[in-house]
Amino acid sequence: MEAALTSSTGRTREFAFTDADFEGLRTLVRAATGINLADSKRELVYGRIARRLRALEIDSFKAYRELLADGDPQELVEFCNAITTNLTSFFRESHHFDHLRDSVLKPWAEAGPGRRMRIWSAGCSTGEEPYSIAMTIAESVPRWQSRDIRILATDIDSQVLAHGRAGLYTAERVAGMGARRTAACFEEGADGGRRTFKVRDELASLIAFKQLNLMHDLPMPGPIDAIFCRNVVIYFDKDTQRQLFARIARLQRPGQLLFLGHSETLFRVSDDYTLIGKTIYRRN
User: Fold this and answer.
1) Structural domains in the chain (count)
2) Active site positions, annotated
3) pTM, entire model
């Protein structure tokens, strides 16, 4: 027990955290989300779930595991929210948005108003990615308000979805976009003396935020012109990745695009796509 109260860095823990606790929680994480937590994530799991123990006034990880095993659906959501990582920013990996503009949106706009455009942001986190897509649309598609174009933004984490749906950000979050784009796309306000920036309603109207677990059936009918699935599968094992991308491929027609994160690849994962640029894939 004493060893369980000491972290790998030698610091004393507030709660006992045994091998059985870690194994039980990471098994549940994989079953619920597909995320495969390495041994190196042990301290991350402890830190994030310890917050849930305090919030619930539970005194041990064993008792928390028993709560999850009893099938409390709301706590399972809170558990998944706590574990999933939500690092994002506006126009992260900007070359993806340049490619979306030049190879997807501009040719589509020039072809006339007869065809729809659908884009999916899978793992949208707090909304910076789908709003970046919406800004790219507004900047590159003439009369975009009258075109049949929609963005689906999904995430497993209900809390970050609520943040994204609200579309409200601090000055620090929008600092890298430049004054002209910020003024065009956000309404400035204040909250307790802090400057805030809210995405303009006309941009927000392009996006539907929905909760979705990628391990479950994908309910969208397709075809989807461009899919952003970036920094989502980095913790999935190869078999889970293969299953997911096989289902994603069925949502796209030949020539449609898939964008992955900077450290992700479809090498030995899927033959349904061809790499055409830096983490940019085209459906075969």
Assistant:
1) 2
2) 48, 155
3) 0.82
